[in-house]
Amino acid sequence: MDALYTAVATATHGREGRAVTSDGKLDVGLSAPKELGGDGKGTNPEQLFAAGYAACFGSALGVVGRAAKVDVADAAVTAEVVLGKEGEGFGLAVTLRVELPDGLDEETGRKLVEQAHQVCPYSNATRGNIPVELVVE
Asked: Where are the beta strands (DSSP E) in the chain?
């Protein structure tokens, strides 16, 4: 792979610490959600993953939309990241809900979403590792 960009972040103290990027643009307190026994006052890795995946998938949708000469600028992507028990450890599952712009027919929208799923780096990283469901709305 030819690297185009490298993001660097450091987390300390796991779910009860901080995560900071090397450029200082992201500096967040972390805490386990209340559902996992934490105080829920900070963000958590699943929320960060959901935000990153949603943004990245939206960009990938824009790339395939421009290539197809279809305006998807008003699309919205919501990523739902589930953390659950898997054997002796834990696993993730993702549902990507893509709200298409008004006026875009469902068939074209579905094709663009499926193409974006082939282009998106997060989708490529998760493919075959965790379940990812695409929901076109």
From this structure: 9-12, 18-21, 27-29, 76-86, 89-99, 132-136
Question: What are the tokens at 118?
Answer: 């082939």
**What tokens were used for 133?**
């469901």
Q: What is the pLDDT of residues 65-106, one digit of tens each?
A: 999 999 999 999 999 999 999 999 999 999 999 999 999 999
Distance CA 7, CA 58 (A): 19
One-letter amino acid identity for 126? T
What pTM was estimated for this model as a whole?
Answer: 0.94
Per-residue pLDDT tens digits for 107-130: 999 999 999 999 999 999 999 999
CA distance 26 to 90: 26
Backbone angles phi, psi at 87, to 5 degrees: 65, -130
75-106: string of b/e by CB count within 10 Å (b at 16+)?
bebbbebebeeeeeeeebebebebebeeebee
Backbone angles phi, psi at 132, to 5 degrees: -130, 120
